[in-house]
Amino acid sequence: MLAFLKKYAGFLLLLVGVLGLGWLNISQAQAQDRLEIVTTDTTAQTTTVVTTKQATSSNITTASTTKQISTIVRIVVVDVKGEVVNPGVYYLPEGARGIDAINAAGGLSEWADVTHLNQAEVLPDEAMILIPRIESSTPEAITEDDDLYLVDIQGEVINPGVYWLPKGARIIDVIRSAGGQTIRADLTGLNQAAFISDGMRVLIPQKPREIMVEIQGEVLRPGLYLLYETDTLRQLINKAGGFTPYAKIDGLAFDRVLWMGCQMVIPRLEPGAPSGVPDEPESIPEEPSEEIPLLIDINTASLDELMTLSGIGIILGQRIIDYRAEHGDFQTIEDIMRVSGIKESVFSKIQDEITVGDR
Known about the structure:
Ubiquitin-like (UB roll); 359 residues; elongated; three-stranded mixed sheet; alpha/beta
């Protein structure tokens, strides 16, 4: 055996070498078969995997997998106040900065002071940005060439006070300078497009709260009524259609302010009433043919009473009172049309609801 190995040792070594090369070639071929070519179609959002062997074959088989792309955008909520065009609450993407919030609010107003504001700062959630007003425009700093008006704004605005505004500004500009109106502001009777004047005072009234009250007794339509917290018994009686002919009205406090859940009862005349008031009849008609109207004396009525008239709000009501203080009592009900803002269309609605005393 030993002699055989010595005789054929060279041949055996050659055979082993050939077998080794063959095994190496087969391993490389298998590795090549496992080599993957990956292409990505960004438009269709798919990934295609093709082996080299499959790519060279006449019958190409493509294995495709669809990737679900889910993008979560986080937001922060920011409250922007002060000297911007549109103050308010804005939803911004996470990582937004101060300048992004200002741009979302329409940009800065011409009176904005951003000297001490870091507009590059990243905003956290629930952030509040207050853009202050330039305080350099004091009376001493204003020259004769400056076309500026001084306006006092009070009431339901975020920052009531006195503001300098350029000539030609409007009421809406004053409101914005004061930081905008509050959620309780009532702008229904205010012309926000009106031009301002020097020394003007702007009052933004508060929206009254609604209350539910009840009235029973000698009124035409007893029941529950929705009124404002500033309304009085007079407004409630008017809502209920007025008195019946048998209502006892002596001692009623017509200017009494109502409150939530209150119940008012209009008493009935007793038999043998004083002269001028008929005794109680044996049978009471279910629907009286006429009612006693409650007329508002425009020479003595309070603001609350004037506001019960059709089409008369807090603005026009205050103008009526101011007109009386400056010009004296109205001589006829038609004289109310001399008040600014009350024309024939408004007068036609209230002419049957008003009087001027004994005239």
